[in-house]
Amino acid sequence: MSQRLPLIAGNWKMNNNHLEAIALVQKLAFALNDKDYDKAEVVVLPPFTDLRSVQTLVDGDKLKIVYGAQDISAHEKGAYTGEISGSMLAKLDCSYVLVGHSERREYHREDDALVNTKVKAAFANGIVPILCVGEGLEVRKAGQQVEHVLAQLDGALKEVPAEQAERIVVAYEPVWAIGTGEVATPEDAQEVCSAVRARLAELYSPEVAGAVRVLYGGSVKGDNAPGIMAKDDVDGALVGGACLKADEFVKIIRFGDN
Ligand SMILES: O=C[C@H](O)COP(=O)(O)O
């Protein structure tokens, strides 16, 4: 049995203003109990404009909910209009940051080199990156998903030392399953998540590979979470649409237990 604590992260994407953020985190905190937090680390990833409100709420009410951001600048400071630096996120006590989400790769043309710089920027500021990888439909149809994901992983981890790599979280999100209701089967998730772990063992060591949490993301809901989470190399979920409703997110966090 793995010692890795499952991680269930809710990526709010561009949803919820700071007032709605407070309401959603309060609802979530009210619904969760100590048993839930023993079973999984619960993370929310709100938009930048919500982070200060979430920080104040989590601190003030001593909540066990952990939070982070959806992106980080590759730069530390300067004339980069619209960007948010790692040190700004660290000041807001962000524990995690998404890096290389497929929507960033698609709409903002982020490539593996930029993703690699962002991974390093996160670690430089004491923030754990949740590195997103995943193939599009054409790649899946060609049966090239493992090769594709491993190439993204290699690119993102270039020159990242083992003592940092062992803390990273990798989220396997097949692009064809994001927001489509088309969830990958537990076997599809296991195939790629186990390949990611094997590559981490090659790049670093079996210890690093054994420490890293590998998540699945893409149309995860309360009813399909238990099957996916039962797989050996799946250590949690990166949830989009279903994390916007507290009760559905709680179901995922409990993956099968009531
Ligand atoms: O970051 C989360 C993913 O993109 C999954 O989104 P989804 O659960 O709406 O498919």
TrEMBL record:
<comment type="subunit">
    <text>Homodimer.</text>
</comment>
<dbReference type="GO" id="GO:0006094">
    <property type="term" value="P:gluconeogenesis"/>
</dbReference>
<keyword id="KW-0413">Isomerase</keyword>
<comment type="similarity">
    <text>Belongs to the triosephosphate isomerase family.</text>
</comment>
<dbReference type="InterPro" id="IPR035990">
    <property type="entry name" value="TIM_sf"/>
</dbReference>
<comment type="function">
    <text>Involved in the gluconeogenesis. Catalyzes stereospecifically the conversion of dihydroxyacetone phosphate (DHAP) to D-glyceraldehyde-3-phosphate (G3P).</text>
</comment>
<feature type="active site" description="Electrophile">
    <location>
        <position position="101"/>
    </location>
</feature>
<dbReference type="GO" id="GO:0046166">
    <property type="term" value="P:glyceraldehyde-3-phosphate biosynthetic process"/>
</dbReference>
<dbReference type="InterPro" id="IPR020861">
    <property type="entry name" value="Triosephosphate_isomerase_AS"/>
</dbReference>
<dbReference type="Pfam" id="PF00121">
    <property type="entry name" value="TIM"/>
</dbReference>
<feature type="binding site">
    <location>
        <position position="179"/>
    </location>
    <ligand>
        <name>substrate</name>
    </ligand>
</feature>
<protein>
    <recommendedName>
        <fullName>Triosephosphate isomerase</fullName>
        <ecNumber>5.3.1.1</ecNumber>
    </recommendedName>
</protein>
<feature type="active site" description="Proton acceptor">
    <location>
        <position position="173"/>
    </location>
</feature>
<dbReference type="GO" id="GO:0019563">
    <property type="term" value="P:glycerol catabolic process"/>
</dbReference>
<comment type="pathway">
    <text>Carbohydrate degradation; glycolysis; D-glyceraldehyde 3-phosphate from glycerone phosphate: step 1/1.</text>
</comment>
<feature type="binding site">
    <location>
        <begin position="11"/>
        <end position="13"/>
    </location>
    <ligand>
        <name>substrate</name>
    </ligand>
</feature>
<dbReference type="InterPro" id="IPR013785">
    <property type="entry name" value="Aldolase_TIM"/>
</dbReference>
<feature type="binding site">
    <location>
        <begin position="240"/>
        <end position="241"/>
    </location>
    <ligand>
        <name>substrate</name>
    </ligand>
</feature>
<keyword id="KW-0324">Glycolysis</keyword>
<comment type="pathway">
    <text>Carbohydrate biosynthesis; gluconeogenesis.</text>
</comment>
<dbReference type="InterPro" id="IPR000652">
    <property type="entry name" value="Triosephosphate_isomerase"/>
</dbReference>
<feature type="binding site">
    <location>
        <position position="219"/>
    </location>
    <ligand>
        <name>substrate</name>
    </ligand>
</feature>
<keyword id="KW-0312">Gluconeogenesis</keyword>
<keyword id="KW-0963">Cytoplasm</keyword>
<dbReference type="InterPro" id="IPR022896">
    <property type="entry name" value="TrioseP_Isoase_bac/euk"/>
</dbReference>
<dbReference type="GO" id="GO:0004807">
    <property type="term" value="F:triose-phosphate isomerase activity"/>
</dbReference>
<dbReference type="GO" id="GO:0005829">
    <property type="term" value="C:cytosol"/>
</dbReference>
<dbReference type="GO" id="GO:0006096">
    <property type="term" value="P:glycolytic process"/>
</dbReference>
